[in-house]
Amino acid sequence: MPRRSILLFAGACIAIAAALAILTVVVISGRDASASREIASTGQPLVGGDFQLVDQDGRAVDQTLLNGKWSLVFFGFTYCPEFCPTTLAELAAVKQRLGDKADDLQIVFVSVDPERDTPQALKDYLSSDGFPQGTIGLTGSPEQIAQAAKVYRAYYEKVGEGDAYTMNHSLTVYLMGPDGRFRTAVAYGLGPDKSAKIIEDAMARG
């Protein structure tokens, strides 16, 4: 091959290599920027915050109720035919599996049905056999309930009219740390063993 052709070929190879290098830098930089955006946009969900409610003994309480203990917070109502009693019964089994660790755990049941769920109604309901002893029931005005649900990203909706109405609502149980901040979610229907493991792991992390 003539010397001139060799030089032209070598020059072309260098140009291609340089172009590929630039392209690689651009692609990698783009991925890094994308990853940075993902990291910046993720992180701990903004769950929990200020609320003003009333417990089953008629005492006014706020978010400081959660301070100093691990708390399982979930939203429901006393007329709930299935999900709420199932969740409460499962949480009773979870506390059994946690053993001594359950001493540092409280369960907080927030009503989404203030029209029917008076403090006394909550007290009667939560004293039912099979439900966790010491469960704290919270209710309040419609505005107070709406605020509590908002800060916990909990959904609820009244369905139907008259005495036969019901409430649709989210089923997530929120595990809050002793500092009152969200740690993790416990999905409905996991079963006592898996739920207890999630709680134990969170407690171990602090």
SSE layout and pairing:
Layout: H1 3-41, E1 52-55, E2 60-62, E3 70-76, H2 83-98, E4 105-111, H3 119-126, E5 136-139, H4 142-151, E6 156-159, E7 166-169, E8 173-176, E9 182-186, H5 192-205
Structure description:
The chain has helices at 3-41, 83-98, 119-126, 142-151, 192-205, and strands spanning 52-55, 60-62, 70-76, 105-111, 136-139, 156-159, 166-169, 173-176, 182-186. With 206 residues, the protein is an alpha+beta fold. Strand 3 (70-76), helix 2 (83-98) and strand 4 form a beta-alpha-beta unit. The longest helix has 39 residues, at 3-41. The termini are far apart.
Name the helicity range. Answer: 40-55%
**Sheet with most strands: strand arrangement:** 2-1-5-4-3-8-9
Radius of gyration: 27 Å
Principal-axis shape equals: globular
Q: Say how many strands there are.
A: 9
Percent strand equals 15-25%
Largest sheet: 7 strands, mixed
**Total of helices:** 5
Low-confidence stretches: 1-43
**SS content category:** alpha+beta
The residue-averaged pLDDT reads 82
Distance between the termini: 72 Å
What is the ordering of alpha helices and beta strands? Answer: HEEEHEHEHEEEEH
